């Protein structure tokens, strides 16, 4: 199963104190890179939230925004004056540009998280369990998005692997012509060597071995076909194997390059270029696969 690293998930929860809105966005990254913005009352649970993220999403650039919208129910706790002033100062530019009154700005600030004292900045076990369930729901939504995206990526990847296999098969129709061309070159070289030194059998054998090595691409073709097959098998794995697929494409590229260096035939070189083009497109897509 192939999973994309791009994913979006959202969940919402209503509590007596207000509404919790959870947004999770994931993009491609070589490592797990988490950026979280959460209310002050969830600071003690931050480590557990991070563990939930890493166990479900595994890898990628993950942005998590957990917002708290106050229900308006008055609390017995005191207002956090410093926090209110900080929000007010930050919103001055917006207020001036939109022509809003201080009353409107103040009303919105009082709905923001972290503007109340300690009593508002703590949650009990029951509340945390509800919030934890909502976070899990958002994570599952993001993971489902990744699976759906991965299914589309898999279709494209397998299509491009099939294209490489078709190009590989097409090489066969040029091989007879290629053999004849190299045979003529070989015969010409042998005739030249025999004229120069009829007794130079050792050099004659060296030239034969050199040309035969330049001629034979059967092993490269066999290995490239095997790599394509292994790519297909790996893409069917229960666990997404983006890195492993990347290693396989490196081996595919090695065989394609060797075929190109041995081809010594213009039409075969064109086929090699087409295979390289497909392989580069595969590599681009693999950058977004978990």
Layout: helices, strands, pairs:
Blueprint: E1 7-14, E2 18-27, E3 32-37, H1 46-57, E4 60-70, H2 81-90, H3 92-98, H4 102-109, H5 125-170, H6 172-196, H7 201-215, H8 218-235, H9 242-263, H10 266-286
Helix pairs in contact: 1-5, 5-8, 5-10, 6-7, 8-9, 9-10
Give the tags:
four-stranded mixed sheet; elongated; 290 residues; alpha+beta
Q: What does this protein look like?
A:
- With 290 residues, the protein is an alpha+beta fold.
- Among the domains are: 37 residues, no CATH class; 138 residues, no CATH class.
- The chain is built from ten helices and four strands, in the order βββαβααααααααα.
- It has a four-stranded mixed sheet with strand order 1-2-4-3.
- β3, α1 and β4 form a beta-alpha-beta unit.
- α5 runs antiparallel to α8.
- The radius of gyration is 32 Å and the shape is elongated.
- The N and C termini lie close together (10 Å).
The strands making up the biggest β-sheet line up spatially as 1-2-4-3
What is the helix fraction of residues, given as a range? 55-70%
The largest pleated sheet is described as: 4 strands, mixed
Uncertain segments: none
**Span of the ends, CA to CA:** 10 Å
Number of helices: 10
Integer-rounded radius of gyration: 32 Å
Specify the structural class.
alpha+beta
Shape: elongated
Number of strands: 4
Average the pLDDT over all residues and give the rounded result: 85
């Amino acid at each position: 199963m192939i999973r994309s690293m791009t994913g979006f998930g959202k969940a919402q929860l209503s509590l007596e104190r207000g509404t919790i809105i959870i947004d999770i966005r994931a993009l491609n990254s070589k490592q797990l890179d988490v950026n979280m913005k959460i209310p002050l009352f969830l600071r003690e649970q931050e480590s557990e939230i991070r563990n939930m993220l890493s166990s479900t999403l595994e890898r990628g650039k993950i942005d998590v925004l957990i917002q708290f919208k106050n229900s308006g129910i008055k609390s017995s706790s005191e207002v956090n004056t410093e926090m209110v002033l900080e929000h007010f100062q930050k919103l001055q530019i917006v207020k001036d540009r939109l022509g809003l009154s201080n009353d409107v700005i103040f009303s919105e600030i009082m709905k923001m998280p972290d503007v109340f004292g300690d009593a508002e900045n703590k949650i009990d076990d029951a509340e945390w369990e509800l919030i934890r369930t909502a976070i899990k729901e958002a994570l599952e939504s993001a993971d489902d998005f990744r699976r759906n995206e991965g299914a589309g990526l898999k279709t494209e990847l397998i299509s491009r692997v099939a294209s490489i296999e078709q190009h590989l098969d097409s090489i066969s129709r040029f091989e007879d012509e290629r053999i004849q061309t190299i045979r003529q070159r070989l015969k010409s070289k042998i005739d030249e060597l025999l004229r120069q030194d009829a007794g130079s059998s050792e050099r004659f054998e060296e030239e034969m071995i050199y040309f035969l090595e330049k001629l034979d691409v059967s092993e490269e073709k066999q290995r490239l076909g095997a790599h394509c097959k292994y790519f297909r098998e790996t893409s069917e794995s229960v666990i997404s194997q983006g890195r492993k697929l990347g290693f396989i494409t490196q081996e595919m590229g090695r065989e394609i390059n060797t075929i190109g260096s041995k081809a010594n035939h213009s039409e075969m070189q064109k086929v090699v270029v087409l295979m390289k083009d497909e392989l580069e497109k595969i590599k681009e897509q693999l950058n977004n696969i978990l």
